[in-house]
Specification:
Elements: E1 3-9, H1 17-28, E2 33-37, H2 56-66, E3 70-74, H3 84-94, E4 107-113, H4 120-132, E5 144-146, H5 161-183
Parallel strand pairs: 1-2, 1-3, 3-4, 4-5
């Protein structure tokens, strides 16, 4: 059975550590697990006035969420919090009322920073939002990835074998979480 996991990068930068982390995760996925990005760059600001007639980018975003078995949020931390860019996407996903695309969809949050636990508060905020939206979120193990020079190679693979093993173990824990949620 194939497991389709979508990931959402909470940064607008094409070269962000978090985008590179997401690419590294795709390379660590075991056979039978596919990871693909769900883009949020075309979403405007959420406005409930649009609930009756969602714009095409928001409809496409919700369709992509519906097409995956689970979601990983890959997020930086901006000023000790969740980037507005990512929070906006979660707001689009959860509306209109009664059409929450994240309800019962297994999720996880991971983030990379140049600081040791630089995404801890953003991840905590994301988990709080996901819990409110009814998305069963992996809580343990947490993964706060400190990116130092050379952490990723030119193809966005994790350079250090031990770091790659830890990241692979986190992904394996998430896959088990998704399998348990699907079986429940």
């Amino acid at each position: 059975m194939t497991l389709n996991i979508g990931y959402i990068v909470g940064s607008t930068s094409a070269n962000s550590e978090n985008r590179r982390l997401a690419r590294a995760l795709t390379r660590l996925a075991p056979h039978g697990v596919s990871l693909r990005e769900i883009l949020i760059s075309e979403l405007g600001f959420y406005n409930r006035d649009l609930d009756g007639d969602y714009p095409a980018p928001a409809r496409a975003f919700k369709a992509e969420l519906a097409a995956v078995d689970a979601v990983i949020l890959v997020t930086p931390e901006y000023n000790r919090g969740l980037p507005g860019y990512l929070k906006n996407a979660l707001d689009w996903a959860s509306h209109p009322v009664g059409e929450n695309s994240l309800s019962h969809k297994p999720s996880a949050v991971i983030g990379a920073s140049v600081f040791p636990v630089g995404t801890a508060l953003a991840q905590a905020q994301a988990r709080t939002t996901l819990a409110f939206l009814g998305s069963p979120c992996l809580t343990v193990p947490e993964a706060h990835i400190q990116v130092t020079p050379g952490y990723f190679d030119a193809e966005d693979r994790v350079s250090d074998p031990r770091a790659a093993e830890r990241l692979g173990a986190w992904l394996a824990a998430f896959i088990r979480h998704v399998q348990r949620e699907r079986a429940a």
